[in-house]
Amino acid sequence: METLLLDRTPNGVVTLTLNRPEKKNAINGPMWNELLAVFREVAASPTDRVLVIGGAGDAFCSGADLSAGPAVQGDLLTFMRHVAEVALALHHIPKPVIAKVNGVAAGGGCNLALGCDLILASETARFSEIFSRRGLSVDVGGTWLLPRLIGMHRAKELAFFADVISAQEAARMGLVNRVVPAAELDAFVRGWADRLAAGPPIALSMTKRLLTNAFSVTLDEALEHEAMAQSVNLATEDTGEAIKAFLEKREPRFKGR
Predict the structure, then answer these.
(1) Which of 60, 76, 94, 171 could form a disulfide with 205, with the two C-beta atoms 3.0–4.6 Å apart?
(2) Helices 29-44 + 76-91 axis angle, to 10
């Protein structure tokens, strides 16, 4: 690929690295296309269990590469719908996705991180909904994600003022899960990714979908969806293996079936 690096480990951890360090990993046309392809590939893969997204160099992603212009032939609405496809493809990956934020995450890069299930940030990471400083409104799913993560008033504060906030402030707001020293970030992310990869793929996938849909369903609907998901889990080999491992006082070995 032209703009991304992809690495797979035998245990099912996929590491995707945005690889334009000279541009702080700003997303240009080829990168939008390659992100879409990778997200769909990981979603469909029977062996990929966890996706980790990070950035090369000293940044996660500085947002869209505005100097490059629209990446899709046609009008601007066509281009933005292509960007929306990327956000939706990330949203629909039925496996845990971790954002490893090692530097600036701004604009579309910020919302790319927020679209992941978990965010692990270094102490030097910075976040910004930079759009209004560029005369733009928020995109890449930020208007949907922010209110759900931190509430409407906080979301409007970040979007209106476009301030740059530290990793520590992001953690206080509830935007990130953990802030760790930069030298420890890789190892910490690897630890979480390995733990998730060792987990029950079917159950984790269903839990992810149930939680993602939580704000758009009633309690009655949530309970019914939980019942349906659990009935599927109880029929899998993985649940039988988990029960057997518990009785034998050992760690289960999940196979995703």
Answers:
(1) 94
(2) 30
